[in-house]
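Encode chain A's predicted structure.
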Amino acid sequence: MSDTYEPVKLNKNWIKDRLKGDPKLRSEYEAHDIEYNLLDELIRARSDAGLTQKELAERMGKQQSAIGRLERTLANPLGSVSLASLKEYAAACGKRLDIRMID
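Encoded structure for chain A:
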């Protein structure tokens, strides 16, 4: 087994196909599009930095479970993550958090 971190790639075509075939699922997904997009951005930033959850947690001075919980929280429609946590996560990935309001 390799010690190199290789994240599982998100198959967006599979998701799009599932959403086409299930109007209720599509409606639920669209209602939480912001959270899912933010989660995708966080995981992409961590992956681009070549970090596992454990390595990211070490940079942030936290336990790996805290990173897993943060990522899971965004996948939960009722979840809420603080801006401070998002900024810290971004900084640990060598990124800067940028939030915008768009039309």
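The chain has a mean pLDDT of 84.
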